Every structure is written in structure tokens, then in C-alpha cells.
Amino acid sequence: MKRLRPIALVLGAVLLAAGWPGLRAQDKGDFLTEEEQDKLREAQDPSDRIKLYVELAQARLNRFETFRANPADSSYDNGGYLAKVLGQYVSVTDEMKNWIEDQYDRKGDMRAGLHALLDAGPKQLEQLRRIQQTPDAFAADYKSSLKDAIEDLTDSLDGATQALADQEKKFGALKREQKAEVQAIKLREKEEKKRTKEEEKIKKKEKKSGVPTDADQN
Q1: How far apart are CA 45 and CA 52, in angstroms?
Q2: Are 39 and 124 in the same domain?
């Protein structure tokens, strides 16, 4: 599978160094089932969508490992199937990266999803490298796809690390601003209650001394 060159603009200037490739020109039906597409459409929260992509990618790796562990059928294109599954893995990863880039530009809070990716990603990378280090009779058929998968995931983890650091800095600052605003509101409410209480005390004092209040004059 031919690897596309890295796109020039990814996640703004912060993620430029990561060099994430764009989504390959491939129909989603080639690598996602209808059910999976429906789940992705429903997962509109930035982090939920990332978590789902991680799950879909892992499902491809599990499928690859299971097929490779079973006895080969001489009448079937085993190598072609294994290459196809890894190609699906790369396509899912690419689409996830497009989603992250889009949400980054939209300033969507992806921190939970990026944490999930950075937790599961290294394990998937280890799984891919283990496959690479234990070649089988069909390794030549999926060698290129496996290389793409490893490089793609490595780029994903590099970009996600930078994106998460930037978002934690940004949303952390936003949280401090929101906290300061809440404290200011509470202070105003406290002062208003104090002022109202003082006014009530003055009214009671004036009423007790026989001084007519505004209400009495009306």
C-alpha cells in the first residue's frame, strides 16, 4: 500500500512537526461496516469519537492476529486478506487523525479522547512491532501495509501528545478564567446581601426611633 506524503498543515503550528498524513482517498465502505459508520455518526462528542476510532483500530489488529494464528487455507488468498485488514487499520487511523485535526481547529475539548489514544496507542504499536518481528509465510504480502500502520500510529501518538499538551494548557487557562468569574459573581452576591442587610437594619432602626421611612411617606 502506497503511503501518502505528510500534509503540510496539521493541527495548526503546534502539530506541524508531527507530519500527519491525510485520509487516503478510499470509500468508507472499504474499511468500515454500516454499523460502525452509524456508531461514528452518533459519536459527535470530540472525545467519544476518538475513543471509538481507537476501538475500531484495535478490532482490526485483533482480527489480524486471530487470522494469522489459525491454520492457513491453501485455497484462500491469506496474504491478501492480512494486507487488507492492516490497510483497514491504517484507514481508521487516518480518519481518526482527520477528526482530531478538525476538532483542534474548532477548539473542541478532546482531552479525554486523547488520553485514551495515548493509553491504548503504545500497546497497539507494540502489537504491530511484534508482528513485524515474527514474520510468517505471508509476511511479504503485508509488509508494506504493516510498515504504513507502524509509521501512521507513531505519527498519531506524536501528534496526540502535542495536541493534548496544548489543550491542557488552553482549557486549563479557560478553567481558571471561569473559576475567577464564578468567584467574582459570588463576591457580588455577598456584597449585595450585605448591603440589603444593612438597609434592613437602618429601616428597623428608623422605625423604632419614630423616623418615617420611605414606605411610610408613600
Answers
A1: 11
A2: yes
Average pLDDT over residues 179-195: 74
Task: Please state, in angstroms and rounded to a whole number, the distance separating the CA atoms of residues 78 and 211.
Answer: 100
112 and 63 in one domain? yes
Residues 67 and 28 in one domain: yes
Shared-domain flag, residues 140 and 66 = yes
| Claim to verify: residue 88 and residue 131 sit in the same structural domain | yes
> Cα separation of 212 and 218, whole Å?
10
The single-letter code of the amino acid at 194 is K
Give pairs for 43-47: CB < 8 Å, separation 24+: 46/99, 46/103, 46/108, 46/109, 46/110, 46/113, 47/109, 47/110, 47/111, 47/112, 47/113, 47/114, 47/116
CA 46 to the chain's CA centroid: 6
Choose among 13, 101, 14: nearest CA to 50. Answer: 101
Q: Please tell me the pTM assigned to this model.
A: 0.71
Range in 60-69, 125-134, 187-196 the model is least confident about: 187-196
Cα–Cα dist 94/181, whole Å = 40
Domain range spanning residue 99? 13-171
Whether 110 and 190 share a structural domain? no
